[in-house]
Amino acid sequence: MSARTTTPAAPVAWALWIRSLGEVTRVRGAIFGSSLAPLIFLLGTSGQFGRLVGLPEFPTDSYLSWVVPLCCLQGAGFAGAAAGANLARDIEQGWFDRLLVAPVARPLLVLGPVLGAITRALIPVTLVLVVGVAIGAEVTGGVLGVVLLYLASVGFCAVAAMWGIAMAVIFRTQQAGPLMQMGVFLGVFLSTAYTPQPLLTGWLEHVARINPVSHVLELGRQATVSGIDLSLAHTWPGLVSLAGMTVGFGALALVGLRRMGR
Amino acid sequence: MIGGAARESRVVGALGRRGLSVQFRRAQLLMPTFVLPLLVLAVIASGTRAGRDLEAFPEVSSFLGFVVPGTLLQGALLAGLTSGIAIASDIESGFFDRLLAAPVRRSSLVLGRLAGTLGLAVLQAAWFLLIALVFGAHYDGGVLGALGAAGLASIAAIGIGGLACAIAIRTGSMSLMQSIFPFVFVFLFTAPAFFPRDLLTPTLHDVSAFNPLTYVVEGARGLLQGDTALGDPWLGLLAAVALAAGATLLAILALADRARRS
């Protein structure tokens, strides 16, 4: 029987959460990049592909409304992936080794950074939504739609954080940072990011259909896309997808974490 | 004088080779630079192909061939960013301080890093053009057009690398450099990377005129398609060279400032 003493979970998670939030002030410019980039991406994407709404089968006549949820998810995803990059830095600098020998359950070591990432993600998501609406995006789903958009964003941030943390504990170097962010990009791009399912062609049509992020986007698009009404049919696939990805990447992160220090 | 120049060119060559070998030493780190742009190309080509049905979309023999210059540009941006991340890594690990103490011109340290960027960009451009060709892209401009387009993208990569190095040298923070990653796509989407400039929304159309990469991507498109109506290659070359020269100067000035402060 183990006589190991463990520290209560809540104070540990709280402390690591607060430390994770400290990244905002500790890394100069980091919050600037992660907040402003989705915003400029919103403007760039809507400007680049805005004329696509002229095609038949596009569910809205406002491309801005189509990409606001996409950019919210991207901003949230980057905030999540940053949790992995920060963990990789802690591993490289040896600080994480000290945490590993502490009498703390290992899942708690990643819970704080995930909560920190979710908190930080609220900044770009809110910024994108506010600016998007200010420059012409519609809020067709009302308050409930906006709640669902936040739910989709926060959930996707948690998924991206799990993915980033898994990469961090596997590669144990900050140079894996682009790999963490690439995962977010791929998840978003290989979906109905730019055009709805009927307008996709070739292999992407099939990949987007099975990519769970397409469902998460649909969950969020109930807020702004007039052709996607608020309904359970547009909600539950996104929720199930988020739950599945969180469990899958969370398990990967925990397996990597357990292997550390062996 | 000639002996000094020869010695400095050896330093530049050695640092360039080191930059490339560091990049290739860890295969997983090549993924973002060599694979991500191809995936984005595939997604854009499949996801927005319907845009060809829009009025004002120019007659081109292949949509894939039309969007490939955007991929070359993306590769150039990523290759440049990689330089900044690598130099920040050298600063954090202390290697850069040892380089600063070496009896070589400081500008050679920057030029050496950018030589590695150039090598990486050339390899990337060849890879992207080849893969797109295999998957059905048509280059009506022939081999010379493809070589010219690759050359433009590689010079632009030096420019982005110079900017990334300047930021890395000023901040010395790898975390910050990694948070800059999303901005790569800002530069990309404020240029007519994947859609013709005439089909951009009016605001972005106006903004794109101030992005030097607009002229690079249009020049590469004109070369690849063998149609200068799609872009002026000489204007592209001028923009790429001006960007490379200006950014390299910025990086050298940043290094001089850092050396003064240390």
From TrEMBL, chain A:
Transmembrane segments: 27-46, 66-88, 108-135, 147-171, 178-195, 236-257
Keyword Transmembrane assigned: yes
InterPro entries found in the cross-reference section: ABC2_TM (IPR013525), ABC2_TM_bact-type (IPR047817), ABC_2_transport (IPR000412), T7SS_ABC-Transporter (IPR051328)
Subcellular location: Cell membrane; Membrane
Keyword list, A-Z: Cell membrane, Membrane, Transmembrane, Transmembrane helix, Transport
Span of domain ABC transmembrane type-2: 29-260
Keyword check for Nucleotide-binding: no
Signal sequence range: none
Location (main, coarse): membrane
Protein family: Belongs to the ABC-2 integral membrane protein family.
Protein name per its UniProtKB record: Transport permease protein
Organism for this UniProt entry: Patulibacter brassicae
The organism's taxonomic lineage, starting at the top: Bacteria, Bacillati, Actinomycetota, Thermoleophilia, Solirubrobacterales
TrEMBL record, chain B:
Topological type in the membrane: Multi-pass membrane protein
Pfam families: ABC2_membrane
Organism from which the protein derives: Patulibacter brassicae
Keyword flag Cell membrane: yes
Protein name: Transport permease protein
Cellular localization per UniProt: Cell membrane; Membrane
Key word Cytoplasm present: no
Family stated for the protein in its record: Belongs to the ABC-2 integral membrane protein family.
TM stretches of this protein: 27-46, 66-89, 110-137, 143-169, 176-195, 234-256
Domain (ABC transmembrane type-2) ranges: 28-258
Family annotation (PROSITE patterns): ABC_TM2
Keyword annotations of the record: Cell membrane, Membrane, Transmembrane, Transmembrane helix, Transport
Main location: membrane
